[in-house]
Amino acid sequence: MWFLGAGRRHYLFGGSKMPIIIMLLSILLVPSLVLAEDIYVAQNKVGFDTGSSCANAHSATWFNTAGNWGAGTGKISGGDTAHLCGMITSQMVVQASGSTGSPITVLFEAGAKISQSVCSGSGGCFNMSGKSHIILDGGTNGIIESTANGTSPTYANQLTSIGVSAFPCSNCEIKRLTIRNIYVHTTDLTDVTVDYSQVNAIKLAGSNTTIHHNTLHDAGWAIYQNYSNGDSGVQIHHNEIYNSSHGWTVAGNGAISASNFKFYNNHVYNYSNWDTTANAYHHDGIHAFGIGGAVGDQYDIYSNLFEGACGDHMTGHIFMEGGASGWTSVGISHVFNNVFICSSVVNGILQVHAGQGEIYNNVIIGSGPSKSICVGLTLINGLVKNNAISGCMILISINAATTFANAATDLNYNIYSCGGSNNCFNWNGVSPFTASFDTWKTNCRCDGNSSDNASLLLDSAGRPTAGSPVIGTGTNLSSLPISELKRDKVSIARPSIDAWTVGAYHLASDAVRPAPPTKITIR
User: Fold this and answer.
1) Contacts of 434 (CB under 8 A, 6+ apart)
2) By the 8 A CB rule, do 196 and 245 touch?
3) What distance in Å separates the CA atoms of residue 253 and residue 302, rounded to the nearest whole number?
4) Labelling 20: which of 35, 58, 117, 370 has CA 20 to 30 A away?
5) Dmax over Cα atoms in the chain, in whole Å?
6) DSSP assignment string, 319-365
7) How many CB atoms lie within 10 A of CB 66?
8) Nearby residues of 204 by Cβ (< 8 Å), 6 or more positions away
9) What is the DSSP letter of 424?
10) Among 144-153, 321-330, 482-491, which stretch is predicted with the lowest mean pLDDT?
11) How many C-beta atoms surround the C-beta of residue 60 within 10 A?
């Protein structure tokens, strides 16, 4: 630095005299000092078409032109923010990638939306496929929508459709958006027109991508993660997903491997609008599978709420499919702090049939002892502890292929409420079904510190009420290397030494009242 004083030039570089021209050149060459630009885009050019504001915005055609991306003033490049203004009816296609430390942000201004009668079934209403380091930010109320796609005759079109295509997009982020009505399947049980796997709010692949704080509704498979070989590090959290047959589908095809995915603090509910007489669309909050030898490993699924109208054809709020389709999973899946509730009779609620599963501190509640399987497991060296399970004909079913290193310690401290069903407990291969908890314990040589109760005394959200048998009857799992497990579903710290409460909540319902989830039914 230098300054002028009393007619003299003073240098402040430790006494050395650096020529001013060299100093200025060094400043200009520092990348971090290059100013990021804000460029505004609307459906059509506005005002002076300078891109300096919504009042002088470039057009969607300008945004979709590759020559307007890259280095240079007035072009969209790393570190820049492209602001979307008003209603845009064109497909928006990102033309370049950002870079580490300099992502490109596309930000919805207040009231902005991308709206088409049917979002494209290949590139989506917004296409960031094949790029990296892109942030798609809905701002305060950004919307991406189809307006005329769904069950006939209410809707004119019955077509495949994608809201946001990020297939693939690594080191990308999708946040604060409402993506809605991609296909509105009404309660017409005869509507089997569309391939529901190809009707997605978000379709993605790639590594280190995050999807969070979005509202996604009315799509077949709301989030479809069709992973590629080597994909890892995807996080999906704090989203509200409803009126979709699948919340999150994660799957691969062929001799590929992907791992390390997290799904947490999401609210997934209401699948029944996708019911059909022909059972064309089975329902899952999470469906993990693969074909042709695909390997999917390392799933952390925690602190989610799955509930609502589950419909007639639910496989599970979580359905980690077995290997019959050619999928294998040999990694560890952690499923903990979740609340699973179904208000209708379903095939299953929590079904994990692949890999080394660790199932801790969940609440699983069915609609009554008439049909459903609350928990169905096929695990390698499984660990099943501190779960509260009630309201199903079969509370827990352990497949004969399941292994435990030591069932006495590894399947234990669970609290059940059989409710009079003759099929509560199924230890496959020894005694297929029994209502007797003592017989179950003899067959499995497990659950020595568990109990069967007339009622779990939980409130409608799965929190224990006064006198609940789950309070203080769990084992302390602080020694496990799972940091998020040391806090309950609402982030209350569990004790480091004393016994834990079984289920997703450490405290009784009169001690903690988390805000109820917002249920938005925008059309």
Assistant:
1) 422, 423, 424, 425, 426, 440, 443
2) yes
3) 26
4) 35
5) 99
6) EE--GGGS-B--SEEEEES-EEE-SS--SEEEEE-SSEEEEES-EEE
7) 9
8) 166, 167, 168, 169, 211, 223, 224, 225, 226, 234
9) S
10) 321-330
11) 21
The alpha carbons of the chain give a radius of gyration, in whole angstroms, of: 27
Scored b (16 or more CB within 10 A) or e, 262-283 reads: bbbbbbbbbbbbbbbeeebbbb
Nearest of 471, 507, 503 to residue 387 by alpha carbon: 503
Count of Cβ atoms closer than 10 Å to residue 29 Cβ: 9
Q: By C-alpha distance, which of 360, 446, 362 is closest to 404?
A: 446
Question: Over the stretch 127-157, which tens digit does the pLDDT of each residue have?
Answer: 999 999 999 999 999 999 999 999 999 999 9
Contact between residue 158 and residue 188 where contact means Cβ atoms under 8 Å apart: no
Confidence of residue 4 (pLDDT cuts 50, 70, 90): very low
Q: Sign of the C-alpha dihedral, residues 466, 467, 471, 472?
A: positive
The residue assigned the tokens 């509200």 is 240
Residue in the block written with tokens 């999906």: 236
Give the residue among 87, 92, 109 at the shortest CA–CA distance from 40: 109
Q: Is the pLDDT of residue 17 over 70?
A: no
Q: Could you give the CA distance from residue 205 to residue 224 in angstroms, rounded to a whole number?
A: 9
Q: What is the pLDDT of residue 255?
A: 86
Is there a contact between 241 and 283 (Cβ–Cβ < 8 Å)? no
Q: Strand ranges (DSSP E) for 356-410? A: 356-360, 363-365, 373-377, 383-385, 388-390, 394-398
Pairing of strands 431-434, 425-427: antiparallel
Q: What is the pLDDT of residue 511?
A: 60
- pLDDT-derived band at 516, boundaries 50, 70, 90: very low
